[in-house]
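Request: Give me one sample?
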Amino acid sequence: MSSTTLTRRPAGRRRPTRRSVLGTAGLLGLGSLTGCGIPSAYVAEDRRSAPDRSEREQRLAFSNWTQYIDTDDEGGRPTLDAFTERTGIQVTYTEDINDNDEFFGKIGPVLTQGTDPGRDLMVVSDWMAGRYVSLGWVQTMDRANLPNVTAQLDPQLADPAFDPGRRRSVPWQSGITGIAYNRKELGREIRSTADLWAPDLKGRVTLFAGLDEALGLLMLAHGADLAAFTEDDAHRAMDLVQKMVDARHVRRFTGNDYTSDLASGAALACQAYSGDAVQLTAENPDIAFVVPEEGGELWAESLLIPNRAGHKRNAELLIDHYYQPEVAAELAAAVQYICPVPAAREVLAASGDKEKAELAEHPLVFPTEEMRARLHTMRDVTSAERPGLHKVWGRITGV
């Protein structure tokens, strides 16, 4: 198995802040949100919908992360513009999601009160989407409005433990948690997570500070089944990390700032996201990204329709718009994460554009079958497990 060298990504593209160190939702879990002003209230299905104004109001409000969509030189968003031209539906697009926990704290009180959240569609990381689903804060989508999703969704993303059958969530983009390292400075290949603990990497390794981000890769190294891991699996992985911290083998725990350590040479190897590796390698071709032999974690950031959204049907039509292979291909070419529409690969390959054709062969946008065999989706940490695991992980990380 070899590591992956990547091409340059578009300048200024966002790095998703997927992490939850010990924020509001992460520290307290699903069942104890009253301390931060968010009542711990499950919303019943019959209280989630509002009168749908889609038919008389040709509009919708869409909240997303920054720089997570295609743009043109005039500042337009071609795929959104094409949707409006085709349907007449005007989209108010807002890049107001900067952090999963921060956004959860902002929208949570509104959803608990049962009032209009002012947005019809939002994108959050799947581990956080699991919390919205568990709390009953999002609506079930009408599959009759999502024929492209039904036909085109990547089967490997189609049945997460937090939302069986993707009834309440649809992937926007996807990615991999693996290992990035400086191949030249290290002087050897990294093939497994266990390689991080080699003596020549003492003090030069970083791990993610967020439990939800770090734990999957660490448990895979111990042979755990991410879809059905036990608390013992989690503690076994954390025990090893504690030993590495005590031995000063781990340099530090990071958020997205791990990229600066790797770029500067302060770290030689780290847990990393596949999307970030694009920029790292563009700036330094000696940096490589690898999916460990024992496996990497496949994750997604998904579209949700919040409770009381006033334009549910319009939101569903927009979701389905992005599952047309031609539209998915255009978005993939811009953001260069794993595309949740495998058929977009053929569109890019046949585009006649050299860069797009190369992208169609990129394993971190369209994973090979060999790579797919090593990708695993982690179930959500439950509300019962979260406080105990966070207590241990917080002690290890010092956060």
In short: The chain has two domains: 24-174+301-359, 175-298+382-397. The longest helix spans residues 231-246.
